[in-house]
Amino acid sequence: MSEAATSVNPGLTQPLLAKRTSRRWLFSAILTTAIVALPVLSVIFLAFFPDENIWPHLLETTLPRYLVTTLKLMIGVGAITLVIGLSTAWAVTMCEFPGRKFFEWAMLLPFAVPAYVIAYVYTSLLDYAGPVQVALRDLFGWANAADYWFPEIRSLEGATLMIGLVLYPYVYLLARAAFLEQSPSLFAVSRSLGHSALSTFFKVVLPIARPAVAVGLSLVLMETLNDFGTVDFFAVQTLTAGLFDTWMNLGNLGGAAQIATTMLVFVVILVTLERYSRRRQQQFAARDNRDPIRRFTMSFPRQLICVAVCAVPVILGFVIPGVTLGVYAWEYFDESWNPDFVHNTFNSLFLSGTAALTTLLIGVTLAYSRRLHNTRGMQVLMRLSSLGYAMPGAVLAVGVIVPLAGFDNWLDSLMRDYFGFSTGLLLSGSAFAIVFAYTVRFLAVSAGSVESALQKITPSMDMASRSLGNSPGKTLVKVHLPMLRGTLITAALVVFVDCMKELPATLILRPFNFETLATYVYQFASDERLYHSALPALIIVLAGIVPIILMSRSISNTRSMA
Amino acid sequence: MRMKLAATAAIALTALPLAAAADGEVNIYSYRQAYLLEPLLNAFEKETGIKSNVVFAKQGLAERLEREGRNSPADVVMTVDISRLNELVERDLVQGVDNDVLEKNIPENLRHPDGKWFGLTTRARLIYTSKERVEEGEITTYEQLADDKWENRICTRSGKHPYNIALISSMIAHHGEAETETWLAGVKNNLARKPQGGDRDQIKAISEGVCDVSIGNSYYYGNMLQDESQRPAAEAVRLVFPNADGRGTHINISGISLTKSAPNKDNAIKLMEFLSSPEAQGIYATANTEYPANSNVTPTGLVAEWGKIHPDSLSLQVIAENRNAAVKLVDRVDYDGE
């Protein structure tokens, strides 16, 4: 059935090329990729110089367990995010029920909650001294932990749930955008051919949305693979735990880089397999956006089910953590309140904003260059530029330091030798280093979504514009960017929220006396007293809400705008 | 156009943290949370007029220092564990300090022979027992943690945590690797639950009846007593200073090193002197209930109540050297496993 919307590639490559101008695009794509790939390449480079060979010891002891735990975690989180993300995206797009408009954007709220914060909140609620167990003991007259069984939140299952709850918005966001872009007539045709709504969903809707869902899911899985905060807090031993153990306890950075590189290879294989499996698909939307979506009208019980399906993730992923933080912030207000707040908030907003714009600019450059030069080489470039997301933040930070400090010291020596003055460290230890790290880390998010949106614009648009004498650049600005507006805003805002939450790279790379909201929260959380920083934690969450609402509106507008 | 924008942004970004080599400043890379240092650094500034700048991170600071090389702005590195200090020496990132004040204030066993690091506080690794379910004197040594009688009654944090690694390193130094492995397997066998959380969480677990015995640093207990919501948990446990009648209780240090490239060397040494002075040592003891390294300083409050500690005289250097063996041992007995 999916052939209905896919057609054979009509030849994106040659007709779009006007040799001289598009060579500029190719050149800038190669240059950007080279710069962006530097940190990842540095880590791979470090992997060649381990202090000792870690593998015999790892293989003999913990590696099997790390691998199994990591796989379980990834499968669990993948399943949770797919189920929640797809079902809620489908519900708010296609069904009419009370509160639908509210849930359209509310589904995204958990995205604003950092995983390490939600993990902390649920631990404090569900552990022995927390309100839930206290109430149960009072109710049943139990004396202590030996008297009853209670699920352990600090477990693999707990970590899976926590990470799943804050990451499902990736899948939701991309799936919903994809559902909205689909022409309702496809759905109608399928139904008229005798498919039920459910079977249409699996046979028509999902296959067409697959590239977008795949991007969302791969972001989820990469983030899961690299999570350290939550799994460390919950004592869940994943590969990342092994990596940090090798680095910090054995002092073997090279060995740690080897583990990171192995994880990277794993991710690349995963992503390649997914792409390979739909290599023959090519979709161009016959965008008939004036045709409004006719939502299902449903019986009251079914409407209730829709409300429940949407409400549960939001309550668990946002309302409960938000309210708990609010209560702590109120109780510990005096400890929490700090005049540096405004400053820290500004730092967070400034860095995240700059990084969001940078990633967007680079993402568009790369994706559009790929459109102009649809060669295997360009595909490799695209993948290479997105690898930063597949590496734990702290490791990537070291990968950032290596080339930046190398460049600074090289320039400094040059200046000292020839001009007799020292330039010192220009880039490393500055806010530039942090923005660079954010860009490298989150480029996958923006480049991925721009690329998949760009693929849906039929090449005849380019041809029309170019045959009217517009250069590739002008075509981009006049034709593609306006059509991509929703995607661009979404991509920038996702990156923005991600940067607001980013912690490990910021910690390592920041200048002196420099705090973002996340690092400020972390210094208390890492000392087992997060309640002292409930207020800034709450602000991270609140600061994420505004872009989320904007984001959701821009997606809804994609239909009405056209 | 785009180039111009990028250039402007780059300049703005690099200019933002205009710092750090100006006169009257000292730059600190710290493995310890900045807010814990604040009272000390404020007192230092008040006394000398020298302003301190801090970067705090738990990972990657050594790598940053190494890559920044001779241009690194960092003057000193502050750590919470001997193995980090030792790592700085091994990677040749720090320089020796030959200074009378420091040598007078810090006893010889708490500093590097060539002055490449100085201990500022010591923290004892204690055993906590339930006041209700464990008799006083029922357990008095680390070795006894492996006794069968504690089966299913012990809680600890991850065996990989630097504080536990240092304890295991000291066991290796005293008993050899094979015997320590048997011991650690015995402790693992006695665990009531998979290692998790921090040292405070183990004290809480005792008060909750999950287990009866735990291991933890001395100051966590002190800090819990100072926090109203955590005090009841702390009051449910008794402190045991292990091996007090024998070789002494295992201790670790928090310390400071002067970097090789230190651009503000004089200020950095002033800071080191200050931190070893009675005034600063007193702040450490009262604010974070740690033992002062300066033996001329009489601690106040809780630390004074605990009385004089009998520390294990084992060289910290040896503890640092046994680190890798200890880490691998933890893996071999699968201490953190289910």
Describe this structure in words.
The complex is a heterodimer of chains A (562) and B (338). Chain A is mainly alpha-helical. In chain A, 73% of the residues lie in helices and 0% in strands. Chain A has 24 helices and no strands. Chain B is 44% helix and 16% strand. Chain B has 15 helices and 10 strands. Chain B has helices at 2-15, 34-48, 61-68, 82-90, 100-105, 162-175, 177-190, 199-208, 218-226, 231-235, 265-276, 278-288, 301-306, 316-321, 323-332, and strands at residues 25-30, 51-56, 76-79, 94-95, 118-130, 154-155, 213-217, 237-240, 251-259, 291-292. The termini of chain B are far apart. The model of chain B is unreliable at 15-22 (pLDDT under 50).
Topology record:
The complex is a heterodimer of chains A (562) and B (338).
Chain A: H1 19-46, H2 55-60, H3 63-94, H4 100-106, H5 115-126, H6 131-140, H7 156-181, H8 184-192, H9 197-226, H10 229-233, H11 239-249, H12 253-277, H13 300-331, H14 333-336, H15 341-372, H16 376-385, H17 393-419, H18 431-455, H19 459-467, H20 472-483, H21 485-501, H22 504-509, H23 517-525, H24 534-561
Chain B: H1 2-15, E1 25-30, H2 34-48, E2 51-56, H3 61-68, E3 76-79, H4 82-90, E4 94-95, H5 100-105, E5 118-130, E6 154-155, H6 162-175, H7 177-190, H8 199-208, E7 213-217, H9 218-226, H10 231-235, E8 237-240, E9 251-259, H11 265-276, H12 278-288, E10 291-292, H13 301-306, H14 316-321, H15 323-332
Quickly list its features:
heterodimer; A: 562 residues; mainly alpha; MetI-like fold; 2 domains; globular; disordered N terminus; B: 338 residues; alpha/beta; D-Maltodextrin-Binding Protein, domain 2; 10-stranded mixed sheet; 15 helices
Brief summary:
The complex is a heterodimer of chains A (562) and B (338). Chain A is mostly helical and 562 residues long.
